[in-house]
Design goal:
By secondary structure, this protein is mainly α. It has a domain of 134 residues.
Length: 193
């Protein structure tokens, strides 16, 4: 509901390269192209954030999760800017961050103990290939609901996805809760037995 529709907070790659408006890398994640765009990103967060957030518990974990979300979104936006350095077309949305959560969550699928699938795991690679192929087709054809007349920044999605898949391992080890020496097993038996 901003007077200019939030376009002053959008990311425009050409302006970044000229040094005019670099905060757009960050502010664009909080602007959307309508309620349909907001709903699609919210559904993605609801679907892919829980497994990632479970890796990072407590106050440190909250900070770690928010940092992970923002970093994958920033890399997604910056990646789009690298591919389209001469465009002044506005980019808005948090899809790069949502795809970052998706890349991380795919590494966790089927793992109840919080371990990650290897980047070379067949199931991970197959899911990633299918999602990226659909992402590219939707982006090139422009079939995204709620995006009539707008380009879909599939490149930002791809950069966010790859960043999330690569970053979740080291990131979660930084923000995973530290075990204490006073932990007891759930059955309260003598730990030395």
């Amino acid at each position: 509901m901003l007077p200019d529709g939030g376009l002053s907070l959008a990311f425009r790659p050409a302006s970044l390269w000229r040094g005019d408006w670099w905060p757009g890398l960050f502010t664009s994640m909080f602007m959307h192209g309508g309620w349909g765009h907001v709903a699609m990103n919210a559904l993605g967060v609801f679907a892919f954030a829980p497994p990632v957030a479970r890796l990072m518990a407590g106050a440190r974990g909250v900070a770690g999760f928010l940092g992970f979300y923002l970093v994958t979104g920033l890399v997604g936006t910056a990646g789009y800017g690298l591919i389209h350095p001469d465009t002044f077309d506005p980019l808005v949305g948090a899809s790069g961050a949502v795809f970052g959560l998706m890349g991380a969550a795919f590494r966790l699928l089927g793992r109840r103990n919080g371990t990650l699938r290897a980047l070379t795991d067949r199931r991970f690679l197959l899911m990633a290939a299918v999602v990226m192929a659909i992402n590219m087709v939707v982006g090139l054809i422009g079939l995204a609901p709620g995006a009539e007349g707008a380009r879909v920044a599939w490149e930002a999605h791809a950069f966010g996805f790859v960043t999330g898949a690569l970053l979740i391992g080291p990131w979660s080890s930084l923000f995973r809760p530290r075990p204490t020496s006073f932990d007891s097993p759930p059955d309260l038996r003598d730990p030395s037995a």
